Amino acid sequence: MERRLGVMGGTFDPIHHGHLLTAEEAAVQFGLDEVVFVPTGQPWMKEERDVSSPEHRYLMTVIATASNPRFSVSRLEVDREGPTYTVDTLRELKDQHGGNVDLFFVTGADAVLEIFQWKDPDEILELAHFIAATRPGYDLARFEAEEPTRHSNVSVMNIPALAISSTDIRERVREGRPIRYLVPEGVESYIEKAGLYR
Ligand code: NAP
Hints:
The protein is α/β, with parallel strands linked by helices.
C-alpha cells in the first residue's frame, strides 16, 4: 500500500496550537502515516510585512512537533534558494519516496483559495490532495463559489482551534500580553529568548 504523507505548509510565524491540532485532525480524518511540516523559505507574496527568518521559524516548528512521533519537519523550503513554490516541494517529496506516496497538502483555506495564482496550479492539484483548514465562522459560501472546490482534489476541514492565529500572537507579544497556552511552552520560551515580534 502507498504511504499516505501529510504535508503541512505554512509560514509558521509562529507555529501555534491551531496548526498542531489541524495536522493531528488531518492525520486522523485522512488516515495519514506521517505529517511533515514544511516551513516556507522567504515568502515572495509577503513583502508588506517583515517575516521572521526561515531559521527561527524552522526551529520553532521543530520544538513544537518534537513530542509527536507522527510529526516531522522538513528543511526543503528553508534551504531552497529563491522564492518558495509549493509545486517544487511536492515534486521533491514525490521523488524522495520514489513516487510511492500519496501526498495530502494541508494549509489554511485563505491560502488554498488563491491556488490558481500559485505556480503551475494544474500540476499541483495532480500531485496532491488539498486539505483547506478553516476557522469557525469562516464563510464557506465564499469557498464554494471559488474555483478550487469544483476540483475534486480539495477538501475543507473545520478546526475550531484555528481561532488562534499567528497574527494575533505577534500582536500580543508586541503589546506585552500573554501567549501562554496559545503556543507550546518551548515556542513561548524561544520567542522570548530570540526577542521575536518586539
Ligand atoms: P498565509 O496567507 O500566511 O495564511 C493564510 C491563512 O491560513 C491564515 O489565516 C493562516 O493562519 C492560515 N494557515 C497558514 N498555514 C496554515 C496551516 N498549515 N494550517 C492551518 N492554517 C494555516 O499563508 P502562507 O503561510 O503564506 O502559505 C500557506 C502555504 O501555501 C505555504 O506552504 C505556502 O508555501 C503555500 N503557498 C504557495 C504558493 C506558491 O506555490 N506559489 C503561493 C502562496 C502560498 P496563521 O497565520 O495563524 O498561520
